[in-house]
Each structure stands twice: as C-alpha cells, then as structure tokens.
Predict the structure.
Amino acid sequence: MRSRRGSESGRQDRAETPEPKRSPRFGRSRVHDSLTAYTFLAPFVVIFGVFLAYPVFYSLYLALHRVPTDSFDVFGGLVFVGLSNFAKLMADQKFWWSVLMTLYYAALIIPTGIAASLALALLLHNRLKWVAVFRSAFFMPYVLDMLVIGIVWTLIYSPHVGILVRILETVGITAFSEKGFLGMPGSAMPAVVFANVLKGAGFGMILYLSAIQNIPRSLYEAAEIDGASGWQRFRAITLPLVKPITLFMVIIGTISALNAFVEVYAMTSGGPNVDVGGRALGATWVTGYYVFDTFYTQFKLGYAAAMSYVLLALTLIISLVNRRFLRSEV
Amino acid sequence: MEAQPGIAIRRALVYVGLTLAAIVVLFPFFWMVITAVKEPGHAFTAEVLPRHPTLDNFRRVLSDFGFGRYFLNSVIVATTAAFFATLFASLAGYVFAKKKFFGRDKLFGFLLASLMIPGMMYVVPQFAIINAFGWMNTYRAMIVPHLANVFGLFLMRQYMMTIPSELLEAAKIDGAGEWQVFRTIMVPLSIPIIATLFLLTFQFHWNNFLWQLIVTNVERLYTVPVGLALFRSQHEQSYTLIMAGSCISVLPIAALFFFAQRYFIEGMTMGALKG
Amino acid sequence: MTKATAARGALRAMMRTAPKAMVRTAIVAGAAALLLGGCGGGREQATLTVWQTYNDEESPVFREIVASFEEAHGVTVEVVRLPFAGAEPKIQTALTTRTEPDIARVDVSFLAKLASKNALLSLEEYVPREFREEILPVALSSCVYDRQLMGLPDQTNGLCLFYNRELFRQAGLDPDRAPATWDELIEYGERLTDADEGVFGIGVRNSLWWSLPFFYTHGAQFLSADGRHCRLNSKEGIAAFQLKVDLHRKHGIEGGAWRSGGIQNDLGFQNGRYAMILNGPWAVENLKRTGIDFGVGLIPAGPEGSRTNVGGNNLVIFKSTKRPELAAEFLKFVASEEIQRMWATRLGQIPVNVRAMDAITSEEHPYLAVFAKQMETAIARPQTPYYPEIENLMNPEMQAALDGTKTAKEALDAACEEIDDLLAGE
C-alpha cells in the first residue's frame, strides 16, 4: 500500500479514475455477497432508519408546514403551507445576509484552517527531538468542547481588561482596547474564525503530516539536484502530493462551516451589528445560528426546516463546485 | 549539501517556530486553567498569574454539585456509545468497502446526504421516537439514536478500501467464514481507524448537552455537560466554576487521546487520503 | 515492508490468536450497560413533578419548601433542577409529546408563549380572589394572559441603581446618596469618569429589557393596549432612548457595557470599571462576597418619576396535569405569606406576598428594602408571546444607535416597523 501511494501515477489514478463499472449481472457469489452485506449492515441501517431517516423525511415534511400558533402539536396538528416557508425565505433579508455571512465564514476558515494545518505539519516534519510532544500539544485543543473554548475566548478577547488587548497595548496597538475583538464588526468574524482554527488545526495537521511523511525522499533529492529551491520543492512536490488531503479538508470544512453555530452561540450570539441598507444585521449572523434561533427561541420548526433544506442545497452545490474545481486543477 | 552551521540554524528556527506555535495553540487551554484558579468575579482580568489563586472552584465543583455522579454517567454513556457506534460503523464500512450488493451506491449516497442536515433538526422527531419506545430517563435514550454515525461510516469505508482484497480471498480459501474474516482480518488491520472513530464518538458524547438534557427528567442521570450548564443561572455565569468543571471534564478525553494517539494519527490519514 | 505484506505473513497466526475473548467480553459488557442502564424506573410514582431553574443558593431552600409541602399533604413531589440555558427547549420539546411535568418554573416572557399555545391550565377557578389580593400586584399581573390567571409568581424582581461607594468618595461625592434624577446621574458620571484609566460613570446593557427603565421613567409605553403595535418610538420613547445613547456618545460617561463581547455591567462593576450600573436583587449576594463597598438607590427619576420594569419567574401548571387542585395548592403554598417570609429572610429576595413584605426591614436588608420600595412604582411588561422575537428585532437597532450609525429615532422607527409586522402576521 505504502509503496503504491508513493508512486505519483498510482496516486493520480486513485484520485481521479472512478471505480470500474460493475456489471449488472448477478452471479451466485453476488447473491451470497448481498446476503452477507445486508446482515452486516443491519445494525447500522436499522438504527439509521429509525433515528435518522425518519427525521430526514420528517423535516422535509416540516418544511412544508408550520407549527400551529395555538398549540405545541408538531405531529398531528401541523398546518400545511405548501412552499410558503420557502417563499418567505426567499424574501427574508436576514436569511440571505446569513448566507452571505456563512460564505464569508467559510471563505475565511477553510483556507486559514488548511494553511495552519499544513504549516504545523511542515514544522513537525523534521527529525527532531520532542516532535511527539509538540504533535500532542497541537492536537490537544481539538478534544475540548467548542462551547468551553468559546467561553475561554470571550474572556481572552474582552475589551479593556482582556489579556489580548493588554498584550497588544504593550506594543502600542490600542485599536481593540475599547470594544474588544468580538465587539467590532470588522474583527468579530475573524476572531471567531481564529479561535476555531486554533482548535481544529491539530486535526488537519495530523492528516497532512502523515501524507507528507509518505512522500518518498527520492523525489525531493531529485529536485534538489535539479537546483529547485525549498519553496519550489514545496510548490512542485509537496502541495500536489497532499492534494487528496486538501480536497478532504475542503469538503469537510464546507459541511462544517455551513452548519456552524456553536462557536457563534458561545462567543457573539450573532452580533455585533452592522448597518446594511438601513437594517441592523449581525456581523457573525451565520445561517446555522439563524436556524438555531428560529428553532429554539421561536419554535418555528417549519421555517427552520425550510432553512435547513436551502442550506443543504447550498452545501451540495458548493461541494460539487469544490470537487470539480480541485480536480480539474493540476 | 549545506554546511553544518546552516543546518544548526535551521534546526533552531524550527524549534522556535514549534515553540511559538505551541504557545499560541495551547493558550486557550492555559487560560482555562488560569481562570479556574481565579477568585469568582475575576474571570475577566488579564492577570496571567492570579493574585489570589484558589482551588476553591474545584472544591465547589466536586463537592457541591454531585459532579461525581455526572462524571460516572458521562463515562458510561460515552464509552458505550463510542463502542457500539464504532462496531456498527466498522461492520457497515466493511460491507461498503468490500462487498458488492444491490443498491450499494445509492444507499451510501443517501447516508452521506443526511450529514448535511443540521443536527438540531433531528431533535424533535428523535425525541418523539424515544418517547414512543418508553425510553425516557435511560442511558439507552442518550446512546442509541447516535449509534449510526455516518461520518464514521465514511471514514471506515475509505480506510477499509485500502486493505487489499487478496487478503480476504486468502482467508476465505483457508475456510474462514464472513464473520471470521471480518473479525480476524478487517478488525486487526483497521485498528487505527477503529481507535480514531472511538475517540471521535467518545468526544461527541462527552460534550453532548441538549440531547442528554432533553431525554432525562432525573438529576441522577445528568451528564457532565448538563451539570456544567447548571453553573449558568438566569442572571449570572460563574465563569470560574465553569472553567474548573471544564478542566476536570477534559481529563478523560485527554487521557484517551494520549493512549490512542498513535492509532489515531494513522487512522485519520488513511480515511482521508482516499477522500 | 508494508503493513499489507506483514499482515499476509501473519494471517494464520492472527486467525488463531484473534482477541476473541476480548471482543466478546466487550460486547457483553456494553450490552449489559445498555440494558441495565435504564435504572430510571423502580421509584414510587410521584404525585406531582416540578421542573425548576433555581440557582445554587435557591435550590436547597426550594427543596425544603417542597419537603414541608409533602409532609403537609402526604404526597410526593418530584423536583428536577434544569439548567436555565436548556430549560425552554426542553419544555417545548416535552410539550410536543405531552410529556411535560405538572408544574414548571418559567420566566415571565415564556409564560406568555406557553399560554398562547394553550399549554397552561387557567387558575381562575383555583386561586380565590382573597389570595390574589395578597400577591404583589405587579408580579401577579405578569401571570395574567388574555385576562386569565395562568400562574403564580414565585419570585419577582426589578432593577435599581447600584453604585460604588469607594469611587464616589474618590470623586468627592456623597457615598450615601445615589443620583436622584437622570440629570444628576450625568453630573455624577462626569465626575466619576476617567476614560484614560478605563473607569466610567456607568455601564448600561443593550437589550430591550435592560432599557425599559429608561423608557418607563420617561412615560413611554411599550406596546399599545391591544398588544398589536410597538409604541417605543413615541415622542417620550425617543427622548428616553436618546438619553441612553447620549450617556455613551454625548457625555462619554458610559463605558460600552452594551457591546457584544464588551465587559458586562456586573463584571465591570465588580472590577471598579463602572461606578454605577442598573442591576437586580440577584446581584446583591454575589457583590457582598466580592467585598466591594457599594450602595443601592432607586432608578434615577425622569419626567414620570423613578420606575423599573418587572422580571422574575412564575410557577405554572400544565393543562395535562392529572392533579390540578393539588398542583394549584402547591403554587399557593409557595406564594403564601409564611413561605415567602422564609424565602425573603433566607435568601434576601423580594417576597411576592405583600403580607411578607415586612420581613424586609431596612436594618436587616438595607439593599433589599430599596428594591421593595422600587417595586411600588414598577410597571409590568405587557404580556406577549413574541417577547423574545421583539428583543431580537429591537436589540440590533438599539445597538446601531449606541454605535452611532443611526439616530435614536431612526433605530426605534425601524425596529417598531419590524415589530408591527411581526405582531400583525399570523
């Protein structure tokens, strides 16, 4: 396996050719295989069927209904409203703003997350003492709860007395002292992203590290003989060869960015506000948070479900575009 | 070949880089601990070394709040859930990776699509099911709905696809049954991804708050995140208590990670590489 | 050289030595944990269940109250303490499957939401008029929805002005006297503020609830009588809000406590950053513990005098209860003179029962006595199920004005327009 991964052509094959088409014919071993398959699948599929498939369809059903104003009966008493939740959504300025903020969030967090992970991996890819210690250290924050991390960062980011503004003040930066990082529209989203990148970087780092370690030394040596600089070697060898990881990070990053809400809940509650065409809208008002707010504060399950489905559609589109884009490159 | 001093300088630079990165990455961690030993009301101060450090927060968390019971509940729930979620995902992952059966790709696609729906949309229908089963106030209610871990299945399948099929054939020729093949070949060879998934699901359950609150109506069954939330009352957040509680609650998961680290690293990588 | 080849070599060995026993033990252990896990049953059936959200100090006292109720009526009451943060989602989820408790302790605004969705038992026939007369009127009115009594208050509170006596002394102000009017507060604030040191005269929170004393002291109404229109952008309302904005923008005596991510007013007060804040009685005990020298005064008076809004919590009974009489007894028990007297003396809170008000003496409870006095001129919030949504619409606009991107009038007009839409819809 390892040797196969090492060869460049083998890698590209795996990344780009789809699996060979299977013949539709069912042989005896096929039937046997199918039977075994279903047996092995049973526990997973049964639980999925009961606890996830039903809710998936139920939320689609919900999206076409609204909770009656005069009861909590969300099973028998839903009021059919057709596509009006979606129609309302299309006209909901706050929703489109949230989509914009979500894309902004994704555009910030995915590249910085990847860059940070890759940088840490490159630093660790050195035959040095303590590498294992550093590796554990970088990974540590990943195991913490986002809610707890969020609370810690609100303390760190706080204005006037917060540790970060105090540190910056010693080098003469006072721009954040009065409002704090989470209190200014310009810095709030980057601050949320920064906190999240530090938490998640260890995860990506591990992926990149193993990929880099699998690159044969001979490739680098050959490049060195050809007189390639360190940067050129990185561009020409490392980057293309860790591309599967990058693709993975982009896909996972997209899904999690589009669903992000805990970090916002813990740090900013969607604020601080900016004035957009006469309406005050939150600088960190991401769609995931809007769904949460609609669901739990307002208990408008139908509207929240409709939002989820629009979000799902967006996720799918973005994932496809990403895939295409990343595949066609190189 | 570069000259010796060049290498030494480079080496020193890497160390500096690593140290700086470690300081930045671990800072929130450090700050959590520092805040946990501050006096109540001093949570927002910039004191790096608290003027009056105190262990009182830890004492209060451990003695006044029945934290031991919450801790035990969390251990039971997270361990059991992680075990079965990993088992089911590896069984299913094996099949998706190595078997051909009717409807395979469609089923896999459908499973994956469910990943993209925000988790909170599941809460109300899942609650209705739990209730219909009469599972309220049980560990089962906290565990079972999350045993079909689609992301885990995805990782498992990707990893298992890299295990050569010839190995399985060889075992079958030796007369091994399907279950035997799975247990004696797939499982041992997939230990890295199994460890990984165990850790990830453990972490998910360890931190799960709302669901565990919703399905328990007795304080005896509260888990750590629910217990921690009790420190935040309507008008006040006891930051120092929350931080002390978090320090304690992070211990098991940190320990688990340290033990599983080696496997984890291997497991994650294989899972992703084929992505 | 690779894992695969190594494994191939070791295949037979592995098949023999597979950790069969280990796997089996693990499965059995896991299954056992799952099945035995549900040790929730086996208790005697409680006659009443109560979900409460009291804090660490209040919970033990509440349990004592429950114990004496159990003894008096020969029943069992099961009490579950919920974290405040998850209580409303939990109650709403439970209601979807009719698994709610008999009684819950809910915030004033959540009561309206529950009542509007027909989840609550009307107490009209269970609570006699004489008993209602014992209850603090403004607290009782927070339980009335659509002219029906839907709960009984178990805790009431309002806001007062907290001030740091030490900072007052340093600024040459009388440490025994809080500013009596808003004009005086501005005057005090200017003397207390030292922006370079990060010390400000006052810290104000942003949200609507925390702004209502400004509005009420100026005689502004919140909603129209029919509950369909926002009235905060009236002439009085704009003047009130302008004052709040001016504290920060014009007079520079407010330290930005309203910002998200800013230093919240109670923490700023504890750290001596804000010399004055508005806060409720719940903050008193905590502040005493931190050892700051502070005083409490009435809300500074505006054209309409000194007024606070009302917060607090109510006990409600769900319609699905099988023991409505007993549940109502429990509510009356908690709100009774005796229990409220005990509650007030033990915890230093405003009693909801007027007959217990004499438990609050200015000698023993100097701070609380001020709150008790403030409650006399308090104004109850109109009952609307949309209160959280109204906050959501109002807060960003108010913040825009505090930030200076909008005028007070523009912000209130914009918010009221959206609120009117909200109230007109559905």
Remarks:
- The first strand of chain A starts at residue 65 and ends at 66.
- Chain A has one domain: 2-6+92-328.
